[in-house]
């Protein structure tokens, strides 16, 4: 039989409720802090390996159109090789505060020639079905070992390597891999399988 001293008193129940309430609040705050910390770690991690850009010009039409948002893989060339036909994002050599997006045409050591509406790499014509129209300009460029030659897919409406020269390798941000907006253009950035 319990004595009256063993029975919970109203003050004890109130203290017990306050303790449980305090523990519940502490657990909730710890969960919230953990969630915020996880979100920050994910945000920083994602931004270390990728970037997002908005296509601003018509220079890459019809492949990429103004207003599209593209995901860029910043590690693509740290662990893999560049290929002709890759669409890359880089710092504009004349103003590194600006980011440009173009297609790699010439790799280090290549000779790029534009003549008669065609592009030739080391004397071989490229098949370029993605072009709006053939280029109307002409020229020959030797790509240095520390650079790449890039052109926009909208050849006659693009300021690119044929205008301002090569892109230094250390100016490359990464490979454009995916269009995520608008939804009707959702999908991988088309490369060119014949390069």
Distance between the termini: 91 Å
> Helix share of residues?
10-25%
Give the overall average pLDDT: 87
Parts with pLDDT < 50 across at least 5 consecutive residues: none
Main beta-sheet strand count, sense and barrel state: 8 strands, antiparallel
Q: What value does the Rg take, in angstroms?
A: 29 Å
Tally of strands: 12
CATH topology-level fold name of the largest domain:
Umud Fragment, subunit A
Integer tally of domains? 2
Q: Mind telling me which CATH architecture of the largest domain this is?
A: Ribbon
CATH uppermost class of the largest domain: Mainly Beta
How large is the count of helical segments?
Answer: 3
**Strand portion:** 25-35%
One letter per element, helices H and strands E, the order comes to HEEHEEEEEEEHEEE
CATH superfamily of the largest domain: Umud Fragment, subunit A
Shape: elongated
Q: How does the helix and strand content classify structurally?
A: alpha+beta
Summarize the structure.
With 195 residues, the chain is of the alpha+beta class.
Explain the overall architecture.
The termini are far apart. It contains three helices and twelve strands. The protein has helices spanning 10-49, 76-79, 161-164, and strands at 50-54, 69-73, 87-91, 99-106, 111-115, 118-121, 124-125, 139-142, 147-151, 167-168, 172-181, 187-188. It folds into two domains: 11-49; 55-188, Ribbon (Umud Fragment, subunit A). The strands form two sheets. Strands 1, 2, 3, 4, 9, 10, 11 and 12 form an eight-stranded antiparallel β-sheet that branches. It has a four-stranded antiparallel β-sheet with strand order 7-6-5-8, with no helix packed on it. It is an alpha+beta fold and 195 residues long.
């Amino acid at each position: 039989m319990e004595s009256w001293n063993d029975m919970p008193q109203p003050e004890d129940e109130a203290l017990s409720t306050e303790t449980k309430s305090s523990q519940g609040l502490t657990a909730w705050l710890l969960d919230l802090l953990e969630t915020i910390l996880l979100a920050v770690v994910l945000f920083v991690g994602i931004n270390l390996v990728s970037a997002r850009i908005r296509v601003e010009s018509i220079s890459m039409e019809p492949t990429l159109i103004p207003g599209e948002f593209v995901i860029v893989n910043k590690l693509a060339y740290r662990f893999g090789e560049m290929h002709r036909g890759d669409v890359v994002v880089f710092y504009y050599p004349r103003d590194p505060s600006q980011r440009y997006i173009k297609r790699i045409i010439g790799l280090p050591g290549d000779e790029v020639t534009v003549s008669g509406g065609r592009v030739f790499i080391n004397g071989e014509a490229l098949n370029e079905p993605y072009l709006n129209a053939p280029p109307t300009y002409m020229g020959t460029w030797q790509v240095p070992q520390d650079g790449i030659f890039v052109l926009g897919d909208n050849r006659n409406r693009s300021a690119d390597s044929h205008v301002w020269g090569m892109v230094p390798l250390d100016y490359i941000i990464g490979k454009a891999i995916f269009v995520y907006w608008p939804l009707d253009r959702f999908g991988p950035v088309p490369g060119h399988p014949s390069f």
